[in-house]
């Protein structure tokens, strides 16, 4: 039986991005875009456009329902930001399509590295604070019944 490697890679990319989205609250593009480029040979522009199509319908519907069920959704904030994300994404797409592929890829890489450093620095500060307060763990919630 012949296995379509690109299909398996797409499935793996989707599961990884979906898991990270539910776990960290990210949109998935930081996983999808590099994976499409480095694993499947997409151009930066094609990876970005494909990522937006991928994320448009399913972005976190299951995760949203779970967070809502647990009382962890601020609808006012979500709707305001969703509307402005729509506008920002449109403007960003206009700009991206005017840039050369290597420039766009460089900008994406700088953004991801900056985001990583910012996230790690914040986590280290918070970890030091929690450690000083004497607690380094959070009990697991009860299993759903």
Could you give a short description of this structure?
The chain has 145 residues and is mainly alpha-helical.
Mean pLDDT: 84
Tell me the helix content. Answer: over 70%
The biggest sheet, with number of strands, parallel, antiparallel or mixed sense and barrel status, is: none
> How much β-strand is present in the residues?
under 5%
Globally, the shape reads globular
Instruction: Give the number of domains.
Output: 1
Question: What's the number of extended β-strand segments?
Answer: 0
Low-confidence segments, ≥5 residues, pLDDT <50? none
Question: Number of DSSP helices?
Answer: 6
Order of helices and strands: HHHHHH
Describe the structure.
This protein is an all-alpha fold. The chain has six helices and no strands. The model has no long low-confidence stretch (mean pLDDT 84). The protein has one domain.
Task: Furnish the topology, listing elements before pairings.
Elements: H1 5-24, H2 29-40, H3 44-55, H4 61-69, H5 75-96, H6 101-133
Helix pairs in contact: 1-2, 2-3
Descriptive terms for the model:
about 140 residues; mainly alpha; globular
């Amino acid at each position: 039986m012949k296995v379509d490697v690109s299909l398996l890679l797409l499935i793996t990319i989707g599961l990884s991005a979906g898991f990270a989205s539910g776990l960290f609250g990210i949109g998935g593009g930081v996983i999808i875009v590099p994976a499409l480029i480095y694993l499947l040979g997409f151009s930066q522009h094609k990876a970005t456009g494909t990522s937006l199509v991928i994320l448009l319908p399913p972005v976190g519907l299951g995760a949203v329902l779970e967070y809502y069920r647990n009382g962890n959704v601020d609808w006012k904030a979500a709707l305001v930001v969703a509307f402005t994300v729509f506008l920002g994404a449109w403007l960003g797409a206009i700009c991206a399509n005017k840039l050369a592929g290597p420039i766009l890829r460089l900008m994406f890489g700088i953004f991801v590295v900056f985001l990583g450093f910012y996230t790690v620095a914040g986590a280290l500060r918070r970890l030091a604070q929690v450690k000083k307060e004497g607690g380094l763990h959070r009990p697991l919630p009860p299993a759903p019944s």
